Each structure stands twice: as structure tokens, then as C-alpha cells.
Known about the structure:
Elements: E1 6-12, E2 15-24, H1 29-42, E3 46-57, H2 59-69, H3 72-75, E4 78-82, H4 86-95, E5 102-104, H5 107-112
Parallel strand pairs: 2-3, 3-4, 4-5
Antiparallel strand pairs: 1-2
Amino acid sequence: MKNRCHLVIIKKPGYTILKISGDMTSDAEILFRDTHKELFAEKQPVLIYDFTEMSYINSSGLALILDAVTTDEASVLQIRCFGLTPHFKKISHMVGMDSYVTIYDDEEEAIGG
């Protein structure tokens, strides 16, 4: 049974955390794109992805993330993330996501940048 994707936005002075939980697949496309439109419109200088509760990601989910972080709107932000599994860290490096997103081990490091 699929574990539906949920996104929670946590706004703080100077940064926003996007907490991703559940399965990151093509089923999350509309939710993910609409959430990013909202986040990019706010023009916070730092966007941090929290992957600690993401249970699964497939190639479509990875493509959604890559599409979001490679847009013109994203190019003016510092994009960071934490909570990646060792396997997802490896995949992120292989597809070049780490060229757009700085990967940290935990929330405290990601916030500190």
C-alpha cells in the first residue's frame, strides 16, 4: 500500500523548512509543484528540505525534486537538505543534485549552513 506524500512548511526568520514525508512519486507532482510555487513566491533566502520522514522515492520523485531545484526561481536561493539515507545520498550525487543542493547530516547543520 502506498504511503501518500505529505509536505509541511515550517517558516522561520531567514529560512523555510519543507518537511517531506511518505512516498515521493509521480503521485506527489501537483502537491510538490504547487507548494514550490508558494515557497518561491515568498522569496525566503534559504530553503531546507527535510527528508527524515520520507519513506520512499522513485525516479519520478527524484525528477520532481531536480525540476524544482533547477528552476530560475530556485537559482536565487540557498537550497539545503538533511535526512537523506546513504543510498539516496549516493543517488543524489550520481544525478548531480548536489550541484544545486547542499547536503547536511542533520537539521542543526542545515540551518547553520
